[in-house]
Amino acid sequence: MSETPSQTVGPFLSIGLPWPDGPFVVLDADPNGFWVHGVVTDGAGEPVPDALVETWQADPDGRFDHPDDPRGAVSGFRGFGRCPTDDTGRYAIRTLKPGSVPGPGGAPQAPHIDVSVLARGLLHRVVTRIYFADHADANAADPVLLTVPDDRRATLIAVPDDEGYRFDIRLQGERETVFFDV
Amino acid sequence: MGYRRDDGATHPPLLSPGYKSTVLRAPSQAPILLPHTLTEITGPLLGEGRVSAADADLTKHPDGEATGQRIIVHGQVRDSDGRPVPDTLVELWQANAGGRYLHKWDQHDTPLDPYFTGVGRALTDSTGRYRFVTIKPGAYPWGNHYNAWRPAHIHFSLFGRAFTQRLVTQMYFPDDPLFPHDPVFNSVPEAARSRLVSRFDLTNSVEAWALAFEFDIVLRGREQTPMEDAHA
């Protein structure tokens, strides 16, 4: 069967897609929780106020609450976050650090979060990954990061700050975020 | 097992200059191939406890009924191997009968409907089927170019069962005269455009109550070979 084509979310996605608890992969009260946050900008460096950032990740043990996790599904960790950008292009997701997940051939991957960005002007989602600056050794051995040209890897690394981690998403232009063909 | 890769003949190119907003938002660098690891072949299984039966009827508001032509929009969600996708969250949003969204940025000179929010949610049943009752949305102007009007459409959002299957799309209505003039619709490769157009469905229309439109949705299926190995 032929797949249904993608279309843009358009400018009014915030009618239908945000949930009140969307940004909270974990409750605010979780002592290990932190914010991953940043700004989505376009090719002119202007903030994108009509985007939606969605995240998907393993729990702190590297497991998924999903029947296709061959190690057996664990329950209780939603793993999913979604946050529309505000008028200044900002988003924020409250979550936990994911554990290591096996990669191609069973080699461990560095802790990472898969990200979809949807927006007016994006006819299809774009996909990127968040890695963490404080896992430098794991990042250096990560089988996915190793396929990314050296001079662009930094766009995938979230940097610690007072809130948790800063991860800006530049859709186009200077220091354009690396996007993946998924 | 990984999921099939994009065949290049289904989805619109991110840079589609006829749709002006793509010009500064489409990434300029080619995407890098992401192997389908556990993170990609799993995905959020959402909706339980998040969706009630009332969420599938957009015409009913606690204080009154929405204005416009009542329609039934229904269909089946399958993957490209033909397998139904059960228990998956379907979210939709749309303009009202006059072609206006309940959104602060939509200032189209036509009234809002106090009894219509334009938001719906449903879970597919065990055979992948979903059904909404709503109002047929109006066409509306959007300023992309002179006399630019979007053909009537309903936005759909689907998760499937894996991160790879995430899809956001728009459903259109048969024989819309605006099709040849809409850069969003025409961004899709020509052979794939008809998959975005619902089918008028007299059989499931309800006597003296509502017309039905059928919109089947096909998400990406599995690869036929074992999970790919980036180092193979």
TrEMBL record, chain A:
Coiled coil: none annotated. The keyword Oxidoreductase applies. InterPro entries: Intradiol_dOase_C (IPR000627), Intradiol_dOase_core (IPR015889), Intradiol_RC_Dioxygenase (IPR050770), Protocat_dOase_a (IPR012786). It holds the Pfam family Dioxygenase_C. The keyword Oxidoreductase applies. Belongs to the intradiol ring-cleavage dioxygenase family. This is Protocatechuate 3,4-dioxygenase subunit alpha. It comes from Phytohabitans aurantiacus. The gene is pcaG.
UniProtKB/TrEMBL annotation, chain B:
Keywords: Dioxygenase, Oxidoreductase. Belongs to the intradiol ring-cleavage dioxygenase family. NCBIfam families: protocat_beta. The lineage of its organism: Bacteria, Bacillati, Actinomycetota, Actinomycetes, Micromonosporales. The gene is pcaH. SUPFAM superfamilies: Aromatic compound dioxygenase. It comes from Phytohabitans aurantiacus. This is Protocatechuate 3,4-dioxygenase subunit beta. Coiled coil: none annotated. Residues 73-101 form the Intradiol ring-cleavage dioxygenases domain. InterPro entries: Intradiol_dOase_C, Intradiol_dOase_core, Intradiol_RC_Dioxygenase, PCDO_beta_N, Protocat_dOase_b.
